[in-house]
């Protein structure tokens, strides 16, 4: 296990930010910590890194208890925090070289790693730029390069794509997968369910300082009763068809909204053929028809009763 957190409790005065929070991250994973703003993701990361004291619980990183002076473990961790933390008076290249130099004492090796990190995040054309000359997305890429240049075994990224343009966002997500394919274990926090679904092999969903569900995307979606949602654009909306549709196997709800027929089914696959057959045998004309699987928002909604994104 690369990271093992057990029953962590962290209070800020009266507020319980982490409420018996547990987590296990295995070697080689891209592990996603998904939760709405304020659910405790950053607090959990700061505790794992021993940057914050906590009230109860245990944390092991690389199989050893994590303490503020666990320098050997810390050398093998790369951190990319939510807020960009670079030196304003150093250029792109100087910043990366500085942060890499904190871990790598051989200056030639450090220069080589700096060049590799610049190429990795695609900042070759900006090496002599000061941070203030960079757009928000490029600044984020610099922040990432500073965190990963020393080639750490464990990379922790806390909401690295907030307020980032789509091009830089894709560059960041692809970069994370590349780092993972090169051997790094990754912990990735976000409140964007699409991103987490796109890159994470396992996910823990957080709410109010607790892990409310964890597993692969498919495991999480399999935990809830909400199943496929079938939408058909009807040429003529007729609510008379709803009663028959509701009697089909697995169907939990059928409704018409404008010219759209929406059929919701409970957990279970391949409900589309039955709906198609029903529409065809009842001579109901439709244009587009499509089937969607539940999203991680549906998982969050069913477990907590509220939307993941507010
Ligand atoms: N230094 C602090 N003092 C008091 N309360 C804090 C402090 N830091 C965080 N909190 C509170 O603890 C809770 C968890 O915050 P945290 O930043 O860990 O959540 P998060 O999931 O990372 O949210 P975000 O995505 O907004 O960063 C929130 O209610 C927040 O207001």
UniProtKB/TrEMBL annotation:
It comes from the Bacteria. Keywords: ATP-binding, Nucleotide-binding. Gene3D superfamilies: P-loop containing nucleotide triphosphate hydrolases. GO terms for molecular function: ATP binding; ATP hydrolysis activity. Pfam families: ABC_tran (PF00005). SMART domains: AAA (SM00382). Residues 3-233 form the ABC transporter domain. PANTHER family: LINEARMYCIN RESISTANCE ATP-BINDING PROTEIN LNRL. This is ABC-2 type transport system ATP-binding protein. It comes from Sporobacter termitidis DSM 10068.
């Amino acid at each position: 296990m690369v990271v093992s957190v057990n029953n962590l409790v962290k209070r800020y005065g009266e507020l319980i930010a982490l409420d018996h929070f547990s987590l296990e991250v295995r070697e080689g994973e891209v592990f996603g910590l998904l939760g709405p703003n304020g659910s405790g993701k950053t607090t959990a990361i700061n505790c794992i890194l021993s940057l914050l004291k906590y009230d109860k619980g245990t944390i092991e990183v690389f199989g050893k208890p994590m303490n503020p002076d666990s320098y050997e473990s810390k050398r093998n961790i790369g951190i990319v925090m939510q807020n960009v933390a670079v030196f304003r008076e150093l250029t792109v290249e100087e910043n990366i070289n500085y942060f890499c130099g904190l871990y790598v004492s051989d200056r030639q090796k450090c220069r080589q790693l700096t060049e590799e990190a610049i190429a990795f995040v695609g900042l070759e054309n900006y090496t002599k730029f000061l941070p203030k000359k960079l757009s928000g997305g490029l600044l984020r890429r610099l922040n990432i390069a500073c965190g990963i240049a020393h080639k750490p075994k464990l990379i922790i990224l806390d909401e690295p794509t907030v307020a980032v343009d789509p091009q830089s966002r894709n560059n960041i997500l692809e970069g994370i997968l590349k780092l993972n394919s090169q051997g790094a274990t990754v912990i990735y926090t976000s409140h964007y369910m699409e991103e987490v679904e796109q890159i994470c092999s396992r996910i823990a969903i957080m709410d109010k300082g607790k892990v409310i569900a964890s597993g692969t995307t498919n495991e999480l979606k399999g935990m809830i009763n909400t199943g496929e949602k079938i939408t058909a654009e009807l040429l003529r909306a007729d609510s008379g068809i709803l009663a028959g549709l509701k009697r089909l196997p697995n169907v939990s709800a059928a409704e018409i909204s404008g010219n759209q027929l929406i059929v919701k089914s409970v957990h279970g696959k391949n409900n589309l053929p039955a709906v198609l057959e029903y529409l065809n045998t009842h001579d109901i004309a439709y244009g587009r028809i499509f089937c969607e699987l539940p999203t991680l928002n549906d998982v969050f909604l069913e477990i907590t009763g509220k939307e993941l994104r507010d």
